[in-house]
Amino acid sequence: xxxxxxxxxxxxxxxxxxxxxxxxxxxxxxxxxxxxxxxxxxxxxxxxxxxxxxxxxxxxxxxxxxxxxxxxxxxxxxxxxxxxxxxxxxxxxxxxxxxxxxxxxxxxxxxxxxxxxxxxxxxxxxxxxxxxxxxxxxxxxxxxxxxxxxxxxxxxxxxxxxxxxxxxxxxxxxxxxxxxxxxxxxxxxxxxxxxxxxxxxxxxxxxxxxxxxxxxxxxxxxxxxxxxxxxxxxxxxxxxxxx
Length: 243
Prior knowledge:
The protein is α+β, with helices and mostly antiparallel strands.
């Protein structure tokens, strides 16, 4: 086998591993996963580049092979609201995929990304032939709808420290059997967009927690040092003294 053929085979296995390890597809027989994998294309996107924009045709489902993807919408005055962040092994873009209507938000690469894409014309017939996968797809959609509803409630009713603590815990959580992440690669501007507060007030609270030793601020992100303290702050719901 030539080196190029070997690299090609490794890339295919990497793509299939995303399907095998994702709860949506993990119970499928190997042959079915390989068949679905035959529809996949890969796409590389540089950090900061748009993957798709709100209003674009919803032509495909996407998965993250490497990197991090931000899903956001912009207000009329140009302010962004971050709805979700997807990491390696996760899928996104499923709403427009299912209904065939335009994208509901912008997707942007937060780091250099390698993505897989499965076109709607291939994926919808696959769902029709796999009712169990369709049910799991509905579960994922319901989970994301619940999370969006919770996010709206948090922005409306919770104070800044509580919202920020909850968001940091969500960003560091991991799937079953996977160690939780401590490092969060995200800018303070993006964090403020997720919790619906100004960058200045978000920075003030982060520095207060860094002074207490709960987190460690780093270039391009932060590390959670005391997750138990953030858990208590998220549950408490009262304004913490930022001094």
